[in-house]
Amino acid sequence: MKTTLLGLPRIGKHRELKKACEAFWSGKIDEAALTNTATELKKQNWLLQKDLGVDVIPSNDFSFYDQVLDACLTFGCIPKRYQSIEKSNYLELYFAMARGLQKDNIDVTAMEMTKWFDTNYHYIVPEFEKGQTFSFFSKKIIKEYQEALNLGIKTKPVLIGPVTFLLQGKEKEDGFHRLDLLDNLLPVYFEIIEALTRLDVEYIQFDEPCLALNLSEKEQLAITKTYHAIANKFPKLKVFLANYFDCYGDNLDLALQLPVDTLHLDLVRCPSQLTDILESKHYNPKTKLSLGIVDGRNIWKNDFEKSLKIIEKAHTKIASENLWIAPSCSLLHTPYDLNLETTLNPEIKQWLAFAHQKIEEIIALKNLLSDENDGYLHLYEENKLANIRRRNSKLIHNDAVKSRISNLKPSDSQRKHQFPIRQGKQKEALQLPYYPTTTIGSFPQTKTVRGWRLKFKKGLLSQQEYDVLIANEIEDSIRFQENIGLDVLVHGEFERNDMVEYFGEKLNGFAFSNYGWVQSYGSRCVKPPILFGDVSRPQPMTVKWSEYAQSLTDIPVKGMLTGPVTILQWSFVRNDQPRETTCNQIALAIRDEVVDLENSGLKIIQIDEPAIREGLPLREEAWANYLNWAVKAFRISASGVQDETQIHTHMCYSEFNDIIASIAAMDADVITIETSRSEMELLDAFVNFKYPNEIGPGVYDIHSPRVPSLEEIEHLLVKAKNVLPKDHIWVNPDCGLKTRDWPETKEALKNLVKAAKKLRAQEVELV
After folding, report:
1. Which of 258, 382, 694, 745 lies at a C-alpha separation of 20 to 30 Å from 81?
2. 674 labeled part of a ligand binding site
3. Do 33 and 20 contact (CB within 8 A), yes or no?
4. Is 440 annotated as a binding residue?
5. Is 472 exposed, middle or buried (0-12, 13-18, 19+ CB in 10 A)?
6. Residue ranges of the chain with pLDDT lower than 70?
7. 101 in a known ligand binding site
8. Cβ atoms of residues 689 and 664 within 8 Å
9. Under 8 Å between Cβ of 742 and 446
10. Is the Cβ–Cβ distance between 646 and 670 less than 8 Å?
């Protein structure tokens, strides 16, 4: 049997890539220094896999920002607005596409960004025009293969498959379907394959996770056409075709008949597909199977006993040389190395495996199946004991929480009255103007603010000293918001590290790592909490600072919370009970916090749910069940307040068309969404559906350092005004401002307020 990986984390054990990229963007290091950091990180990953004994090691799984953006540059798929940037200045072009660029005479917006299938990883969305042409522009895949060769490692280059690349992009004009571009794109793939085969490449991995979706006949034909074309042109090439995140489903017969050497299966998300394959009349025993048996999306220790049974089942019909052992997907979604965690509760730590440990699990599974496995039997016993201890641990179970869940009633997820009645009461209570302005919640987390938190954590600042610093920062932010004329204020969240981690630290049932970072987008890394047990709230979590902020001003201040579905999605969630049950436990804890905020005098409370769309199962037949319990969990969290209390929610970087009815069923009084990168395109779903409640379409892109002009914001607001009732429109940025700097934030928000006031003045003139 062979072992392989589909990809590894690329940020570095200590987020070296994040720090290098941000230093490069700010002009503190040059291109050579950034490139050297990248070279070292790739080298470390390749040598780690070699030292641990991985048989087939991937390359081209590294990225400065995003693998789909890399593919855009590889295929020369560069939107026309970047023509003013010299193509020879590769990194400037690359990062301009990712982040936008405002420099000298150049002012270009970034490309759209959205979630990669059902993960919290964000990718840059390819843009396509009718008759789009492609070319082999970036030679990154060749260079990285050669880098590994120089280390004595012959790798398996990784490419996003052409059908997935096209399907995950967007047509930027009418009159064609993006799959119509396949004939233009395939010659570039051929050129890449030709260059790699000249270097004696044996395997190329093509990632086609679109095969986990319900594909149309046109889409299925595109898959068939692609891989037959590759096989006909390169008969000696060994194609490793990777689908992950779910079963092949209705695409299984199609996949089994493709002329590929190896077919990868995600047996964590869909263990049943192995039986389907072994019993299928279309399965060719000469086709190798890559058994994705180790979870690439979560951090729980593999169950060797269960995994060995699955592998042995495959082995009854397939020769060992035709079996691979692998993770379910790229390990991009897991932290680097559990060995770095020296303060984690030892009882919990024994249940876990990060990327490094997952590689060791894959190697151990292979060796446990060998004839000479005596040296590995102790690993089997240790693994079995750890899993038994976890099941029986007293840390996991809380009878009071289980009782509260069992006693939930339908009324617990219902507001007292329907939205039209609530809206009238809220307008009377809040007295807000048309086009009320606000922000999504967070303000810049400067190096100074982060330094206070670190010193407090290390005991170098007392609680009293830390509180004084945070209080002063909150007051400064309140005064700034008052001065520029925002209508609804926020306290700025200066005391918070991350929108999920902060709450997890205050809830029972969560544990935390020190180095468990994963990439969310670009240089943005998050450290998901480890949700290991029953969830409860021992005491209020946010009331102190929200109540303080409201005491400083007569203008309404929003209480800021993260919703139950997002806390669930952005944590490493226990896998020993249904996710619905865990989500309801979180919802009850948030509900208690919402009620406490209302009782402390806050009239507006925002419960952010940016992850509700990403949790949607990939196959439509599973949507109804998920949406039912996800919407219910949000409503449980939000329904304990009076009609006069206005509930907001926020969602970003998602496609809403397919679930707009469920978003409406959440029944938030106000929803804010990201729309600036798509030029208000994402608003169409709400307009076409006739979304009944109030909505704040984001009018500037906070993931770009550029400051939007007054005219840009006006342009977007007029678009919104043309399709929405004026008394339903809010004016706000796309997302929180935590990652931005104060100078750009202040200028952008001043323009936002000016644009809203101008719109109000026009309304007065019309009257």
Report:
1. 745
2. yes
3. yes
4. yes
5. exposed
6. 653-655, 764-767
7. no
8. yes
9. yes
10. yes
Residue 569: helix, strand or coil by DSSP? helix
Helix (H, G, I), strand (E, B) or coil at 340: helix
What pLDDT is recorded for position 320?
94
Residue 740: give its domain's CATH number: 3.20.20.210
Q: Does one domain contain both 347 and 426?
A: no
Inside any domain, residue 406: no
Residues 298 and 444 reside in one and the same domain: no
Q: Within this chain, do residues 377 and 430 fall inside the same structural domain, yes or no?
A: no
Please write the tens of the pLDDT for every residue from 375-418. Answer: 889 999 999 999 999 999 999 999 999 999 999 999 999 999 99
Q: Is 735 flagged in the annotation as binding?
A: yes
- Domain hosting residue 476, numbered range: 420-766
* Residue 558 is labelled as binding a ligand: no
Q: Are residues 483 and 625 in the same domain?
A: yes
pLDDT score, position 653: 62
297 and 355, same domain (yes or no): yes
Amino acid at 390: R
Amino acid (one-letter) located at 604: I
Count of domains for the chain: 2
pTM recorded for the entire structure? 0.89
Does 437 lie in the same domain as 388? no
Q: What sign results for the dihedral spanned by CA atoms 64, 69, 71, 76?
A: negative
Q: Computed from CA positions of residues 202, 205, 206, 210, in that sequence, does the dihedral angle turn out positive or negative?
A: positive
Burial class (CB within 10 angstroms; exposed 0-12, middle 13-18, buried 19+) of 382: middle
Residue 304: predicted pLDDT: 97
> Catalytic residues, which ones?
703
At CA 745, angle to CA 105 and CA 487, rounded to 5?
130
Q: What is the pLDDT of residue 703?
A: 79
User: CB burial class (10 A; 0-12, 13-18, 19+) of residue 242?
Assistant: buried
Determine if residue 652 is labeled as part of a ligand binding site: yes
Q: Which two tokens stand for residue 711?
A: 């005219």
In a domain, residue 323? The reply is yes
- Ranges of beta strands (E only) in 527-679 are 530-536, 558-562, 572-573, 604-608, 646-651, 670-673
